[in-house]
């Protein structure tokens, strides 16, 4: 697998993805976002991420869209791509990376790359995660002094929603668990 950072915002390249294979395919044609991809040895794109600077804080990079080819999900490609973008962004001088996720699978993948739930949601019911993990002023999260409480609070947000069978089963398997181990 080859991982390439194709460009930084605001001068990102246009990336045309097959809408039948990739969620958010149309979002990658915008040129104002940076892009990174994962490719097979045969040069086939199997994952992509689009990102740009926060409008009010130039030290924060927002990961806007992450997509993995439907037939390649669950192989760890997304977390590896995100880890590489994270590392390059930190090298470039960004202090913090943020992302808003709309499903528990993405939430888990981001946790595996060192992101943590902030306790915030967007107006469209996405949970906001950031790297490095947020530090609470009182040293705790929702009355609990550990990362497990922060992780479980995010999962609880998802549990309160209408879920697919796969999401409900996934969330049940994580009931009371510690955050996943950092992979990258």
Chart the SSEs and their pairings.
Blueprint: E1 2-7, E2 34-39, E3 45-53, E4 60-68, H1 77-92, E5 96-101, H2 104-111, E6 116-121, E7 127-131, H3 147-159, H4 165-173
Parallel strand pairs: 4-5
Antiparallel strand pairs: 1-2, 2-3, 3-4, 5-7, 6-7
Given helix and strand content, the structural type is: alpha+beta
Domain count, please report it: 2
N to C succession of SSEs: EEEEHEHEEHH
At CATH level 2, the architecture of the largest domain is 3-Layer(aba) Sandwich
Kindly provide the radius of gyration, computed on alpha-carbon positions and rounded to a whole number of angstroms: 16 Å
Q: Could you characterize what this model shows?
A:
One of its GO terms (molecular function) is acyltransferase activity, transferring groups other than amino-acyl groups. This is GNAT family N-acetyltransferase. Residues 161-184 are annotated as: Disordered. Residues 1-134 form the N-acetyltransferase domain. The structure is a single chain. The protein has 2 domains: 1-94, Aminopeptidase (3-Layer(aba) Sandwich); 100-176, no CATH class. It is 25% helix and 26% strand. The protein is built from 4 helices and 7 strands; from the N terminus they run ββββαβαββαα. The chain has helices at residues 77-92, 104-111, 147-159, 165-173, and strands spanning 2-7, 34-39, 45-53, 60-68, 96-101, 116-121, 127-131. It has a 7-stranded mixed beta sheet with strand order 1-2-3-4-5-7-6. A hairpin with a 5-residue loop joins β2 and β3 (45-53).
